[in-house]
């Protein structure tokens, strides 16, 4: 009996030394519960990511495994290195850009596109190591960061509306409302209401629970076929592992560097705003700065690199971490716990056949709502700020290309700020970015599919 107690005390001591739990006013039990809450809130990515990347032609089983393992790596590194209660997994905006802009839009095979992701990941890690990310992030005006997040959110919601059959193509008006005679469309509508009601009632893990409930409804109504089994070993990553490295020769084409640059830029700015917002919620910010931000960015970079090797698009910090923080998560033990549950989830890959486009569509739409909420922070009363922000937001869904939306904002912001007599507020890096995006738009315009 004494040996068991001694072992418990030793384990608690190790956790205390690693995460400084008591100093942060928390407990081991609270941190573990926070980690579980965060996992439940973001576990939908295990099914949504294979669905989106599967549309690009990638093996869904391999992507499922890569998604889970890259999340494990990201969460553990974030927890151990930075001691933040912030979890990492494959980003929705990045996978949407990969599939709908690069593969389907530009006509680039997914194998070559993964080479672009890998190179961007390597550059991303180098930039993080030399702290260049911190410098550039500080130079980007906050309003444009909010606009980028909102634009990606609306784009993701649009993808969800399409996948769920609520929006369809139309020759006369480009888009139109989908046919309500399709039973699967009503499955999407049911899913939207289920998640919406859960979100309104502030139920932890609303999106994950909503996906589960929608899948059950699909099974009960025979709109979805029952899987042959529920538990199995994790699918092999052989179809996707190292594919990006094997296709590095494709980078000899100058057009591929436009893809690399966009992946680098999207990943560059995606995590920054999320980290800052979550750090403020968790009380981590000190004098308007994040301690250990370099370690946090390095954790993000390494997980992105690992994901690129295994076969998934860039990872990023998840806003759903706020669910765990809300129930008391304050240290890295929360993130490590989330990583543990992602590891356990590898046993449940057969559920992929149950999670159809109509099941994931409601999740995409609701996540879009959450991301679009950042628009409230934009200074709409100042036209020189409002216009670049607005054109960034609408540019993504209306051109069906995330890169164009980002480019529109970066091209107009320095010019309008200068016209308003506020040129001193524009960092020189923004002028450099303007010329970078002029070149980028030219390259994108001559890519196949444009």
Automatic annotation (TrEMBL):
Keyword line: Cell membrane, Membrane, Transmembrane, Transmembrane helix, Transport
Membrane topology qualifier: Multi-pass membrane protein
Cited InterPro entries: Azg-like, Azg-like_bact_archaea, NCS2
Membrane spanning residue stretches: 32-56, 62-81, 88-108, 114-132, 144-163, 183-200, 207-234, 254-276, 297-319, 331-352, 359-375, 387-416, 428-447
Location of the protein in the cell: Cell membrane
Annotated GO CC locations: plasma membrane
GO molecular function: purine nucleobase transmembrane transporter activity
Superkingdom in the source lineage: Bacteria
Family from the record: Belongs to the nucleobase:cation symporter-2 (NCS2) (TC 2.A.40) family. Azg-like subfamily.
PANTHER family given in the database record: GUANINE_HYPOXANTHINE PERMEASE PBUG (PTHR43337:SF11), XANTHINE/URACIL PERMEASE C887.17-RELATED (PTHR43337)
Protein's name in the database: NCS2 family nucleobase cation symporter-2
